[in-house]
Amino acid sequence: MSSQEIKKYGVSDEEQLSYSENLFWWSLGITLLTVALFISARMGIYQEVLYKTHGKYPYEALYYTHLLPLPAFAFLYKNLYEHWLIAVNSTPLPLPSYLSFISIPSIVFYLLGNVLTQYLCISSVYYLTTECNSLTVTLVITLRKFVSLLFSIVYFQNEFTLYHWTGTALVFVGTVIFTQLVPSLMGMFGEKIGEKTKKEKKKTK
User: Is the whole model's pTM more than 0.90, yes or no?
Assistant: First the structure.
């Protein structure tokens, strides 16, 4: 936005600064996501090499990849403690009358549910890395994220913009290309046509 446009539309210095800050954080977020994507792809290839060299031990890999980063959370102990107090002091879950003697904070319950589902998800991903190549694993994870996004849009009634449709089309086309669905369908269709022509030739003879 030029200085003339700022004067024309009456954009203040604070609004211009806010726009610049938003642009900076948006660019930083896109950069981090891009870097994380490349690192994740490289890690998938590295895992594939490790499994071929040292054998397939998905749960051991899962254990160490989650155990080794734990000491780093010591630097966030204050923040973790504050949020744990918030979770413990949250509104108790409404339980049936015969369970009225039990008081479960709602956030703690949701946290346990999140931990359980995350464990099921990540353990399945690590097991998948031992059975499929890294590209297949990346595709499956992308599809899982895509389904989660669609579910959140439907459940929370979020707006489905043109960008969402574009992403949907890209995911769908990428999946079709990767699974080689079109060539296989063409092959099946060609085989059926070939069988029909053979039958017709036999009838004519």
Answer: no
